[in-house]
Amino acid sequence: MSTLAADREIESLMSLHPKGFDLSLDRISRLLERLGNPQDHLPPVIHIAGTNGKGSCAAFSRALLEAAGHRVHVHTSPHLVNWHERYRLAADGGGRLVEDEVFADAIARVAKANEGQKITVFEILTAVTFLLFSEHPADAVIIEVGLGGRFDATNVVTEPAVSVIMPVSLDHESFLGDRVELIAAEKAGIIKSGCPVVIGAQESETALQVLIETAERLDCPAFVYGQDFLAFEENGRMVYQDEDGLMDLSPPRLPGRHQFANAAAAIAAVKSAGFEISHRVADKAMANVTWPGRMQKLPQGRLTELAPKGVDIWLDGGHNPGAGVVVAEALAEQEEKNPRPLFLICGMINTKDQSGYFRAFKGLVRHVYTVPVSLSEASVPNDELAIRAVEAGLSAEPVSSVANALMLLRDTWDGPPPRILISGSLYLAGAVLAENGTPPV
Predict the structure, then answer these.
(1) Is residue 178 part of a domain?
(2) Domain span at residue 333?
(3) Quick check: 174 pLDDT over 80?
(4) Cα(371)–Cα(368) distance, rounded to whole angstroms?
(5) How far apart are CA 147 and CA 145, in angstroms?
(6) Coil, helix or strand at residue 55
(7) CA 3, CA 9: separation in Å to the nearest integer?
């Protein structure tokens, strides 16, 4: 049993209410009405949906606003190690994860207001978001969608300062549809009549068309990546361009060329929400942005001590083919600048396209160690996951844990210090950070 009061409250809720998602806004709307509709009493809201990149966009948006001196609330999901990570409350000098006593009190009040009615735990915790954010002063609120958009529990904000749709691709097909245009339509559900919309870089022209047509139908000012704003690399710098001109910026601290587009979407979103972003502010934000578990260099800790000497370890929670592509591209860029043999330690859950994820790494990874995801009941058995990796053209073997994979590599590898990617699941990323003793703060 956890020693944190908020965790005990959540454990109690999970014993009473169903796990997972139940796509409807009726229950959350009823509960919020009993709480006085706190979602209607918030500072300007930046609401972010998408298959990939929405967390990075939230991180960049927070960095931009805080670099400009604004106080910002941020809601993201899922968490990696502690539930508290989902709630960052505004503070001078930068937001802080919600204090346990404050969090536990909010959960208890929301649960009491629900009066035992049928509801999901995610819906209760989303109501907690709105209650906390309405009771603490801030200049802006950043809210990341949990699943989809149209029926996501966060989609009760009727007039966001801006809606943001990040790259859309296949994921959660059983909930959202098995074609990218269907998924795009679900994501577009957060677009509100007359409110600005920022559309991030889309790989699918079909998805892009759905998003643009939705914005046009709802008479929304739309800002589309590649048409109204963009970003590109030039001489090791990031150049951002929109109708106001160019900004020559430090490259984003988050690695990978895809982060240029994510950063650009955030700049466009914050500006569309009515905040002025100067060149100095944008440059500071690019240098300071952080986003744990997404192409994060694993800090020194208990796990890193088990690895080969001089190793370069990266952690990423991406878990679908689209995420595999951008992570593989980021690693290929590192390989060009600093060649090292690359090994993959991977664990995945059974709702994801495992072979599709692995295919992105063909020709790049020397060997894959597949591990179970201990925090998820849906973990793919490590021997089965190794088969999926081999089917995708990779060399692979099952190992019992990340720690054992690191020790096995340490004991068997006699080449130059390798680069290791631990990836495939946010559950796995959280477990690694916890075991390493370096949870997000």
Answers:
(1) yes
(2) 296-436
(3) no
(4) 10
(5) 6
(6) helix
(7) 11
Q: Is the pLDDT reported for residue 347 higher than 80? A: yes
Tens digits of residue pLDDT in 187-207:
999 999 999 999 999 989 999
Phi/psi of residue 405, each to 5°?
-65, -45
The domain spanning residue 350 has which CATH number?
Answer: 3.90.190.20
What's the structural domain count of the chain? 2
Residue 17 sits in the same domain as residue 155: yes
Residues 31 and 9 in one domain: yes
Q: Terminus-to-terminus CA distance in the chain, angstroms?
A: 22
Which domain CATH number covers 85? 3.40.1190.10
Question: Vertex 117, ends 113 and 122: CA angle to 5°?
Answer: 80
Query: pLDDT at position 352, please?
Result: 81
The residue with tokens 């916890």 is 434
233 and 310 housed in the same domain: no
Tell me 298's DSSP state: P
pLDDT tens per residue across span 265-294: 999 999 999 999 999 999 999 999 999 999
Q: Are residues 156 and 247 in the same domain?
A: yes
Is the preceding omega at residue 78 within 30 degrees of 0, hence cis? yes
Confidence of residue 241 (pLDDT cuts 50, 70, 90): very high
Name the token pair of 156. 């009760």
β-partners of residue 397 are 369
What residues contact residue 436 under an 8 Å CB cut-off, 6+ apart?
A: 298, 299, 301, 302, 303, 304
The model's pLDDT over 19-56, given as tens digits with 9 standing for 90+, comes to 655 667 999 999 999 999 999 999 999 999 999 899 99
CB-based burial, 399-421: b 16+ in 10 Å, e otherwise: bebbbebbebbeeebeeeebbbb
Task: Specify the pLDDT at position 16.
Answer: 80
